[in-house]
Design a protein that fits this description.
single chain, 404 residues, alpha/beta, Spore Coat Polysaccharide Biosynthesis Protein SpsA, Chain A, nine-stranded mixed β-sheet, three-stranded mixed β-sheet, 11 helices, 16 strands, Glycosyltransferase
Amino acid sequence: MGASPSYATEQAVGHQAAPQKVQARAFAGQARPQPQWGPNWKASQSKRGGKYVVTSVMGLDPERLNIFVKSLRRHSPDTHLVVFVEENTTHHLLEDNGAEVISFKMDENSALVLYRFELYKRYLGELLVRDSEAGVILTDSRDVLIQSDPFKEPLVQRLINEDAMLFSLEGGIAVGEVPLKAQPQNEHWIDTCFGPEMVKEMADAPISCAGITIGSVAAVHGYVTQLLATAYQDASSKCRKYGSDQAVHNYLLHYLGPRGRLTFPYLMRRNWDSPVHTAGYGWPIVIDRDGVYKRVNGSTPPIVHQYDRAFDATKIYMAMYPLREEEYRWEGPDCVKNLFLDTVNQCPPDAKAADAAAKAKQQPKAADQAAEDEVEEERQRQEQGKDAAAEVADPGDGGGDVRR
């Protein structure tokens, strides 16, 4: 095994090798079964040069999935969303947002992280026939946020035009690239699939995240095909069930790639220069007042993967993309005032308002009446005072002189 290549440059360009015919090796000497498609599957139709985002879900987390779907629809409404969903799973959220939903039965001997590529391979093979100019993004969905149309990025357009795909490295401006030897979980996956010698061989190689793959349909189909062949041929029998797509993905990039054994062209980008920002080690970041997720250098990535690593980010994006079971519709008010149209009901007089208005009109009259009553009372008091004084001065007929 040769020495690990240097990763000091901003990018590495893979050269296309001659296509190799590879026969997949089965665990029990039998051919691999084709994915079991659900009864509702239909091949989608598209125009040439279409934009496709392909993902898979198993055990829906509606609130997280809603962030992915709604943010994609907001920023790239004309992208064709394809979602593989395990059978007997409710998927109204996906259908309501125009997704092509394909049901599948899970292979009991596989983990979804690898089995999903079996599903993708067949779909991409058919897409390649009907739209060889398509651009494709394979992506996770639970922790992915879309902030702009990734297909409008110059780098993504270059990938599609050159029939290449992108490997995005993990890391960040604060920590730099993250080598395999610094991440025990990735070491474990490599060891499970390719053994301890390969762990040593790839120790200094920077980790690339397998969660999101971008490129032309031809390149992504070639990547998926070679990833599956590698998982069955070069990896151990434990890899399919207990391993990880991450291990095979990095084996392709860091072992087969430098040896010119990949069957597709590729580009490699550091995390802070990629259209995909993987947040696992990508700090520091800023989420501004409008909810825009930015790198500390001020750049705004079109796609954010693992946004939930920033603890409050999930709350922010759940608030930006709330999950509503039903649409809200308002038919307008029952009636309106001072709008005279045949189609609009005039509001009848409000009884309370009319009563208040009547009382308001009566208040001046009541005040005047009270003043008049007060004047009359004063006049009567004065008259009574005069009468009393007159009685004292003139006792009347029964008086006579008072003698002592």
